[in-house]
């Protein structure tokens, strides 16, 4: 009998296959049946939550086997439930379809029907998948995950590919994925730890563990051998904020001729400190992202992730959310000059073709983010600045604005950070960009940086009015 639906799976005596037949009023007596029912309605399904704060399984009315399991945290996942007869026993199966946020109700229905059709034909989809993936090696599993997981960013995918190739595949690459043991994973991590690369060991553990979590979510393996293994490195949050004297040294130094920095690199560093955006977001800026640079409301719109036809197209922001950056007068002026220098390239800071081998294409069409990091290191060495990074600009902006009473949500929008406290309204409905308060804050910061460069930091700061409203 099909689990959680009014369907009976009957073994035909002639060929031992299964067929679907209506149940005769015995549904409520079936083991593990979902007691809560939802109509086949997207609005009702999207609103469904846990009952009494406990994990709750909802049956989707009219779709055999389809259920929605809602965790106490509100995370909801579609499953299809069925049972098969093995010998004299009935064995219950549950096959995961996907997260409610990523899978539409219509797609979940289609997958549930596909699964039940296979069951009716005598197949056991869960057992078949497990058998197929048990025979698959860890290398095959990891490569399939890296090729098909739409939730993983390009940067992470590239990093994991390199880590697995050099540190993991030589040890467990040819082992069946389902047979890899906790001891084998620990041996890999211990070997990396002995090299003194503690953070790298933690990153390798994440690569292995996330691969198994992905596989478990698809019923491909039953256990994660990396689960529970301790971190090798200690994580200490960086708190570095440049003093006013250090900021003056840096800002003035960006215009010095003895630093060896090209104009595009200087411009990228200046924009990072004026806007608070990440190095890759600045270095990879496109002309199409910039609006009204010569007008009264210059704005930089950095695209986030988009989803079309069930496939995710990766954007340019770290968190996948679109970022709207109201530009100060100073930042807009730099962008205007950069566009004039970029020629026909769509990139504001195109790659330097003089540094690319003849006959080769650059790795990126724009200046590489790692090149900007190295340039910052060289600049700090020339200027005598200790332990300063590009990312410190974000902390400097947030600290300076926070000390002057700027609202936390305005600072979060500047940094493209999600609020620490998010209810359903803020998460799904409230997408206010607060353009004017953000513009005022960034203009005040740019004026401060400019004044600091002239040696007028304290006087300029005294003119800033707290922006609490």
Explain what the structure shows:
With 469 residues, the chain is α+β, with helices and mostly antiparallel strands. Helices cover 43% and strands 13% of the residues. The strands form four sheets. A five-stranded mixed β-sheet has the order 3-4-5-6-7, with helices on one face. A three-stranded antiparallel β-sheet has the order 8-9-12. Helix 4 packs across helix 7 and helix 13 packs antiparallel against helix 14. The longest helix is centred in the middle third of the chain and has 19 residues.
What's this, in brief?
With 469 residues, this protein is α+β, with helices and mostly antiparallel strands.
Low-confidence parts lasting 5 or more residues at pLDDT below 50?
Answer: 1-31, 459-469
Order of helices and strands: EEEHEEEEHHHHHHHHHEEEEEHHHHHHH
Compute the number of strand runs: 12
Number of structural units classed as domains:
3
CATH topology category name of the largest domain: hpI Integrase, Chain A
Helix content: 40-55%
CATH class of the largest domain: Mainly Alpha
- Average per-residue pLDDT, rounded, comes to 84
CATH superfamily of the largest domain: Intergrase catalytic core
Strand order of the largest sheet: 3-4-5-6-7
